[in-house]
């Protein structure tokens, strides 16, 4: 590569002159004649020359503009014409690939379209078009992705008009696999049928949603359904707080008591535990339910158990559920019984949808930064860029 090529980043150029005004204007021409791109012959003559102007990069606060002298060659052997091509500059484009990638990475990093239109001397529509172009390339590269072996499924809110969307997460690699609009089986049917290697999914982690459970059974037949630990604990607390509301509506409004009731018993200090027991002593039924709730939560927090240890824990868990069937928490007991297999599977695995919930927080920040999205496809592409395709983008 010539000295000029090292400075500019485009090989095979000879700089004729440089003018600094409002920006950096560089006039350059090719150093060597290439072989014929049709027959690879060397017998070329220059038929004509025109000047091509392209934006290249920014140095400091100034945009570098290249004025390239482009020869039009005529091959004496095959009698065909062609124009000189430059590395990193596509035909008929007004900016180099390096410049377009620079704009894409800046916008992807949070720089607004208005700011980029001022600093890079292009319109906001051009920023969006270049951004969508790079995203489309990444989408085509990921079009035939196989399903992850450990899949997390959860919903999140998109807009009032379009409702909820479903997030599919590769829990093993901590990447968002895809985001699709809708959370019902009919709305996701076409997408799920087109997924590759669905039969190789081994584990599906979800909250206690009957819709998602039916989807997993139908479209991932070989996968083990695992209940999400966070949602199970939250469900237990919700049912207990509802029963507490029935026994003592005034005490239910006390924020200090609410905090103590929600926390795990082993996380309370001696003073906090004593205060809580003094309060529960006035409500014997509520106190018994609180003790049962703590035992139930201990079961839900079990993880990475062997099959033998899980079998030893199961009888005591079933006995506890049987007791709850005859208590004010009978609705909770019925729900946990219907989800018996996924909850027992939860004891064997460490993975949960905590990764998915973290991505949902990030998606909310992406939406806020864009002041909301109306077009779901644009939202989906941004989510995949920030949460699913980082490794691919860094290699481009």
From TrEMBL:
It comes from the Bacteria. Residues 151-383 form the Transposase IS204/IS1001/IS1096/IS1165 DDE domain. InterPro entries: Transpos_ISL3 (IPR047951), Transposase_DDE (IPR002560). Pfam families: DDE_Tnp_ISL3 (PF01610). This is ISL3 family transposase. It comes from Zhongshania arctica.
